[in-house]
Amino acid sequence: MSADHRSRHLSCDALRDHLDNRMPMLIPVEGDPPLYWHLEAGGLRPALRIPVPPGTKAPRLGMQGIRAVCVLDGGEQFLHVFIEQTKLLREFHIVCCEIADRIQMEGVAPVAAVQTTVMAWRKLLARGRQMSLEEEIGLFGELLTLIGLAAARGWHAAVDAWQSPKCADHDFTVGPYDIEVKTVGGRARVHTIHGLTQLEPHRDRPLWFVSHMVEESDAGRTVLGLIEGIRSIIRVQAPGVLDDFDARRLLVTAGGHAIPREHRWAPVEATLAFPVDADFPRLTESILAPLPESLMVRIVDIDYRIDVADLIPSIAPSPDGLDHTVDLRTLPPDVASDLSESNSAKDEPR
Would you say residue 3 lies in a domain? Predict the structure, then answer.
């Protein structure tokens, strides 16, 4: 049995390998009470097997493709949380690992653990609302920066540096410094800055500003295609970090957004990187501090735009080659972008 490098759990790739063997199996999940991955013959219906008291009723989950049933085996009752379509295996694996943690590490009752976990992930994995074009281009730029960091520091360090927008001030935290990524579609390198803290460095770490320019191109990638290309590379070069990449990508796209697949984007002109220092154009709380407090309390929000087209970096070179422009031709062949809306894999790439 192959363990996930970040935890006590069987990795999703190892689980997939067992399914591909198409043999019935019970694979224990380390901890107490004893839980198991239950695999049927033929690689069908992978399930998390949870012992429950007699008479327990299976909860209705309301999550696409993931169900729960109660079964009797040898006079004992078990709750099986399972999927019938393996295209959802990665999401299913994440959900089941969290259910197991709630039961074994937090002592939560099985049915409550299943319901609580699924409720949280049902919202996170929802599909339907489209990203705005600004959000789509912004995510594409973050993925380009992720690829560049991986080339310099490896995939483990790059993925670990990628931050969730809900719990971090900047897009990447790379050991001794932070990165704020901005991407614009078109030929004008004018970026929108949201709030007074987006370009505020932390006291103990310098901040770098990375500027990408992209445009629509038949030779480009959709966001979905870029994600699939990254996953293909990680699967070969650093398989242990694939689950972490998927989890972070889900956090970045939380809120029910579908992964965009309509527009193909390609970098245009060079990527630029600037230290956010006294010479960099920005608004911060410290700059506005001289304003009377009676005025400051009335300023509810600030968005502004900066033009960095002719700005010369005061420090060269940038750390980790942040100004390196990613060549999309070095990625594995793009298959995800060609998926139609009716394709059976439309919800998520495998």
Answer: no
